[in-house]
Amino acid sequence: MVGEEGAFVLGWDEVLTEEELSMTLKVLCMSEEEFKEYKEQDGWEDDSEEEENSTLSNEALSRLKTPCKKLLYDSVLLTLESYGADLKAEQDLLNNTEAYEKLSRREQQALHVRYGQKRILHQLLELVQ
User: Fold this and answer.
1) CA distances (Å), 88 to each of 63, 93, 99, in order?
2) Domain-by-domain residue ranges, the chain?
3) 15 φ, ψ (degrees, to nearest 5)
4) How buried is 121 (Cβ within 10 angstroms: 0-12 exposed, 13-18 middle, 19+ buried)?
5) Which is nearest to 125 in space by CA: 86, 84, 93?
6) C-alpha 39, offset from chain centre
7) Homologous superfamily of domain range 18-128
8) pTM (global) more than 0.85
9) Least packed by Cβ within 10 Å: which of 13, 28, 29, 115?
10) What are residue 11's phi and psi, to 5 degrees?
11) Rounded Cα–Cα distance for residues 1 and 25 (Å)
12) Tens digit of each residue's pLDDT (9 = 90 or more) over 62-99
């Protein structure tokens, strides 16, 4: 369901791997009985047109059912824990010109990437609280 890399791609305004995330949330939030019924259907891709045409925009994420929101929230927290430093520490380093300039060009670029990733994850936390 998640693809080869086992990750979902989030943008500022929507989920970029929305089909994978939608299917994963749907399955993980099913009861055992619902899952058995769903699995016995003639195909995993026989969802309604409404689901196929929906996008997981930030607005749509904030309207998810509570179990799906909790699952996303907990997943985001686990992802944030995997980073060495928190968002504030990254921001402080970006704002500290002297310390920032001591970093190599590669370290500066990595800092910008991490900071952007963490900002998106924090935005997602707010959407699903």
Assistant:
1) 28, 9, 15
2) 18-128
3) -85, 125
4) middle
5) 86
6) 25
7) Rubisco LSMT, substrate-binding domain (3.90.1420.10)
8) no
9) 13
10) -110, -175
11) 10
12) 889 999 999 999 999 999 999 988 999 999 999 999 99
